[in-house]
Specification:
Elements: H1 2-22, E1 27-30, E2 41-46, E3 52-56, E4 59-63, E5 68-72, E6 83-89, E7 93-98, E8 101-105, E9 110-113, E10 122-127, E11 133-137, E12 140-144, E13 150-153, E14 166-171, E15 176-181, E16 185-189, E17 195-199, E18 212-218, E19 221-226, E20 231-235, E21 240-243, E22 252-257, E23 262-267, E24 272-276, E25 281-286, E26 301-306, E27 312-316, E28 321-324, E29 331-333, E30 335-336, E31 340-341, E32 349-352, E33 356-361, E34 364-369, E35 374-378, E36 388-394, E37 397-402, E38 407-411, E39 416-419, H2 425-428, E40 433-438, E41 444-448, E42 451-456, E43 459-464, E44 476-481, E45 487-491, E46 494-499, E47 504-506, E48 520-525, E49 530-535, E50 541-544, E51 550-552, E52 564-569, E53 575-579, E54 582-586, E55 592-595, E56 612-613, E57 619-623, E58 626-630, H3 634-638, E59 646-652, E60 655-656, E61 660-662, E62 667-673, E63 679-684, E64 695-699, E65 708-711, E66 715-718, E67 724-732, E68 740-747, H4 750-776, H5 778-787, H6 789-804, H7 810-827, H8 837-844, H9 848-858, H10 863-880, H11 889-895, H12 901-912, ...
Parallel strand pairs: 62-68
Antiparallel strand pairs: 1-28, 2-3, 3-4, 4-5, 6-7, 7-8, 8-9, 10-11, 11-12, 12-13, 14-15, 15-16, 16-17, 18-19, 19-20, 20-21, 22-23, 23-24, 24-25, 26-27, 27-28, 29-58, 30-31, 32-33, 33-34, 34-35, 36-37, 37-38, 38-39, 40-41, 41-42, 42-43, 44-45, 45-46, 46-47, 48-49, 49-50, 50-51, 52-53, 53-54, ...
Length: 927
Amino acid sequence: MQDIRWIIIILLNLLYCSSALANTYAFRSLSRADGLSDLKVSALYKDSNGFLWVGTATSVERFDGVRFKHYPIHGNSEKKKWVNVIAEIEGHRILVGNDMGLWEVKSERLNPIGQDTIKGGVREIISDHQGNLYLGSETGLWIRKYSGEWERIILDNNPLTADNSIFAMCLDEKNNLWILTRKDLYLVELNNERKTTLFINPLFGKHLSCSYRTVKRIGDLLYIGTMEQGIICFNTVTKQFSRFMDIGCNVINQISTDGKDLLYVGTDGGGVFFVSTRQQKIIQNFSNNPNEVESLRSNSVYSLLLDRDGILWVGLYQFGLNFTYYKNCAFSVYSFPPYFDSKNIAVRTLNIGEHEKMIGSRNGLFYINERNGNVKTLKTPLLRSNIILCCATFMEKYYIGTYGGGLYIFNPSDMSVQDFRPQEKTPFLNGHIFCVKADVDNKLWIGTSSGVYCYQDDKVIYHCTMENSPLPGNNVYDIMFDSTGKGWICTENGLAIWDPYKKRVYADVFPSGFIHKEKIKYVYEDSEHKLYFIPDKERLFISDLSMNHYAYLAPNSLLEGKEITFVIEDKQNWLWLGTNDGLYHYDKKNTFIPYSFADGVPSSIFLSCTPVTDHGENMWFGNSNGLLKLGANWQSVEEKTRYSVAISEIMVDGEAQNLVLNEGAGYYECRLEMWRRNVTVNFSGLTYTDPSHMFYEYRLREKDDEWQILTGNSTLTFYELFPGSYKLKVRRMGAPQSETTLNLYISLPLIYYIGLFSLIGILMLAGVYFYLRRTEQIQSITKWCVKSQPVNEESEIDGEKKYRTTSVTVEECEELLCKVRKCMDTQKLYLNPDLKLNDLATATGASIYTLSYLFNQYLHSGYYDFVNSCRLAEFKLLIEKGAHTKYTLNALIEMCGFNSRTSFFRYFKKINGIYPSEYIKTFEKQN
């Protein structure tokens, strides 16, 4: 019976794996709307700099993950433009072969190579480590030696026969070149006086057609793709042909390989196949499925590439290019096949053991025992509530806390559940159980909606509430015992401290300016004995154990407006900060590294779920789309890409500029004239992931201390740059090794220098002239200065007369001011962040000139000062109504009409002399 059970488990695992593999890849499609000029994709190549090169029926395209650069192929024959092959040779030179010949990609065009020598199309390009170039062409094999000399090898003595037309080649470790023509296989021994040997395939007679198309080698075997008979093999040792397995489609357009076991096969009609040569088995098949948006767009695969970064590129006939997003898989979504998969489960709490896992969600708790294969889902009606708030193990018991359903003890041996204290209806049957913790003395502490309980030997020894202790609130969200043994108790109304020596709760031991009166959800202590407090709708608060030094985390644009949900430290002593919009790795100084889709994170939403580090130093995180695992050696996997950021294009006033890459020095360079100073820089991190999940940082000048952050965008625009030199540095956030530099020079034309020196000469002459005049007339100037004093008084009188000439009287100003204030009070115009003076003039019926006079001459303050004072009054009114307890500070700022957090803070401090947070705390103390 036990044997039958394990056989069933193995079969289920096999079925699960096959179905999971089929859905591993989700394809993104690129077409004309994305900049691809031709939808017939016939060749693919990824160069050493990280660019993808795409050959089509009419062009060559360079793709950087965001945009295409177009290289058209000019010629009279549309058929001959079709790109057969793209390859890279020494010096990062990109070569292209089509039926018109051989081409090299230059900065803006394709340049022909050897047209007078190679008379015919080029279908294969191979280079060796000695710098020799081998071209498979319609007229035989062409070898360009490192010295630049050309050599031709004819496979058949008859130069007009089709047997000299080469379709594919591969080079082995003995420097032998294996060559396919339409019907035959040849061996050219390059080290043996170019000896050529023909191998005739005996598997198919004259009645069966077998046209060779592509060839790849693994070990001693050649795998030959044909246009009618699928894949056949040739043993290079025994010199024998044999049939390979039937993959379900006999029209093979492309074969690629990992060089060890796997073949990646592109077919015309069957899509893409991953085939294990050792197992003679199809591992994966990708094909078009009309019901799946992320499947291949067509089964007619004309080119195929699985690049060194694990990205699968599929070139289609008339349907463009499909590819899979890059993922470095630092994070993985936990599953236990075939029984359990946490994908799409919003994880609220977790408990990780060596072989057991408890995963709490809004739809119950999932228990997984990987040792014996037991999986159990605990939910209603077994539980009174499906919302799991906490799960923990204590003294070999498994505790499950719910929202509104009390506390349970789970027995994994028989999968049974029992109530914790059925005799105590509130809170253990119908209350909220927020946390279950243990202190250093192995006492059990339970945070509930009815205060905090402490149990020892299954007996309650403390029960602290608002009524019998200084506990500020009865909803206890978290209890954290620090390294000194103190218990930090988090409630909806603030903090309290449990003193383990005096056996008392204290709420009046906090210093002024501490965060103890705010709603705290979670407290964490790191290896440096710093405490991290996570308040509701506020920034992270940091303190030492003695509360002598404390402060909010300095504002950071990456975390701006985001709600922190958890903090945990890793073995590198960095912090992981989970938020409702992203996961961040923080060095406790100034560096924040975001982690997203490209790192294997399925969703940017992290719930208030405390992460766990297991015995193997793996870290586990609760995400809204599953339980995430970060392996102990994640940093060896995490290297996002090996490539530097690439500057792909510079536009000035909408026109592309000449961009020079100095590969030796490792920087780009561009020179501009002074009247063209609006510069747009397009770049790419060459990661080939979803662009919206990319994070960059840049700075324009060396003297700039701070890096500017750029999220989900790979374009920078600078307006009205002054003449001079600039050094733009761009890098992927958290990857200094990816930094690239653009040296930008904006120069003055020669005529400006001539004009400048002429002006300097004129000024110098004028200076000399006025100096001489001054020495001659110094006495008269002195007398004039003395006499000029009454004239200054007269000028002041003239200024006053100027203001007296206005037609607006004091009474009219007072009447207009009342009208303005009435409009502000009744219509609340100031709530419009884009309110202009013209809008106020329309609302009041006054002219812009009259309003300007009112603010500047009557009130002696600017228009914007007046409007901002109204907004500040609105802010204070909202505070009086208690809105700060429901909304974040950012939301309140927007509700008052400010469109900038910076301008709000600056104006608030200017008027009130304190910051908004200090004002709110003062208000709460007074009320």
